[in-house]
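Please discuss these two lines.
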Amino acid sequence: MRLPLSWLKEYLKKLPATPALVDRLVMHGLEVEEVIDRRQLFDRIVVGQIVKISPHPGADKLRLASVILSSDGRPQEIVCGAPNIIVGQKVPVALVGAKLANGLTIESRPIRGVVSNGMLCAEDELGLGTNHSGIVILDNDIPPGTPLAAALGASEPVLDLSIPANRPDLMSVRGLVREIGAIFGQTVKFPATKLLTTKGAVIKAIKVQIAEPKLCPLYSAQVIRGITIKTSPVWLQNRLRAAGLRPINAVVDATNYIMLEYGQPLHAFDATKVTKQTIIVRPAKAGEELTTLDNQRRKLKPSMLVIADSVGPIALAGVMGGANSEINPTTTDIVLEAAIFDPVSVRRTARQLGLISEASKRFEKGLSLSLPEQASQAATQLISELCGGKVEGGSVVVGSRNQKPIIITFKPQMLTDLMGMKVAPATAKQILSRLGFKLTGTTTWKVTVPEWRLDVAIPEDVVDEIGRLIGYEQLPDKLPLIDTIPQAIPTAIQIKDEIRDLLVNMGFSEIITHAYYGQTERQIVGQPHIQIANPLDKSQQFLRRTIMPRMRIALEAVTDAGEDGKIFEIGRVFRPELSAKVEQQQPWKITLGLAKKMTHRVPSVWPLLGVVHNLEQYFGLTRTSIEAIHTMTVKGRLLVWAELDLHQIIQYRRNTSYQAHPSMPPVTRDISLWLPPQMTYATLRQALISAGQPLLQEVWAIDAIEENEKIGLTIRLEFIAPNRTLVKDEVDRVMSKCVNALHRINTIVRK
């Protein structure tokens, strides 16, 4: 929301300098994104007067305009191709060195053989709009040489404010005036609006029907006849431009001006184009289309609310009007619309059509039921002043204008409890009064919320209002004392955190991939999948029932970068067959992946199995938790990835017990083996531990090879006695037992 400071100062006379004003607003909850200095936009652009127009000697579509830039100055010759210039006009002239809004820097250069000493500017070149059909024509009273910023009233700062989604009242000048007035303790009184009416039967002028009252609780229509479409006065054009809107004509500009001031969007229809003088607010019918004011033909859906006459749609409710009822230079009679539309309906229509307008921004936040009548009366008065015409009776209003007041029961003690500081009741009452709230009661207050504050509904909201006006910088930075009982961390969360720490310590990096994939992955995985009803594209049709496809893609990306990598993901998968309850269809899985350059003959899955073994050993598992494991070779690198079931780790883990580290030194021996087919590492380890007890304390593999379809291992055995240093003969005897145990399971000891 752009707020010209001159508009603000019409209501609030005593304001600090702009920097201090901005700081104060921010500390009271009104964010200022930018202070716009519009003078910079028009640097080296002045008002010039055309005194002569001659044909261009080298181009039929170009003309030479002689322009004076001061009352006693010498004419400057400028080449121009615009069709709308005539002698005597006042136009914006960009001097040599000026930089326009479209990025063009003006130079003195020949155009078809004639030197042009500047440029006459169109609307889009000045950043005032998108029109490029002709040169901007300025008011004839402006003296030549006047800086364009001064001529357009652009010498004032403009505040660009970020309006919270729950504060629709701040999408208006009056709402901002009320808020800023309350911050600075200034009383604000808005001038009354007098409606100019003539006698007449309103019901005969226009008929209004609402087919869906829930989507349009209030609709007001006012007929004004005998108007003359004119160009808006300079003050109105300048004010609209400062607020970021483009002037069009006096009627449209008047509705936009009132929208900015009151926050209530308005729309004017050409009354002669409303068939049978009947307005119907209804959902669109299947197959209906409407060309909107931006000249786009739009296909409508039954979920979209439209304004229609007896023939078809003439506007998108709360979004944009239709070209078939547009105001044009020959319009003499208009129907002025002021309504309340359902915020969700307006937001849905605007998003579906990609048509976000100033009106839709306000309607989708919600508006007070009292606004349409106030804004309609103000707009009717302004249009009558600018364009003449007669108001045909009062407005036709369908729906309820009564808004039930919100009354909140509030205890002043809540201020201390929630803000952490004491606030005198008198101070709190004064602040609420400045914001427009009404209070009754002494120890317990009845707080009546002003009709424009749709965001205040509970006592905590009242505390927030008082805190904002006191100033956030005044609140103490000491946290309040709160009695809490620490909650135990759930087992699943604790184990996931432990797994993350273990894997990171082993050199792994965690990744997070999408929880869906396409038809190709679904066919590879097989089994039932949950299909997404509205996927963004074909690669996102199904919720994953395993993380394995995404892990493979991630490993290939690592390989494409020419690097080794260790990655893992802990995430949910989705398996509809597990339970009728949705939350039980989402088990947690741990997926590990390795990308490793193949430098020696190591069995393909062993590097990853070692990682899994460390995890299982940490949690004391006696059974594997691996559900699937895959390998492939890409660009000379071995890719291995496996998926583990977190539920099995939780279910079969053993509680960790600790014992003192042995004080005696260990003795280690290595032994190399050829493993028989189908031999598992668990069987091998168990045979050695059983044979070597009680001195054999630990067994682990330190090397592996694969040769002629045989797998070889080098095993390290660690012997420790709890109360003495072992001697060689003792270790030899235990080693002999271990070798015999290996022979019994058909393992060949390599010499």
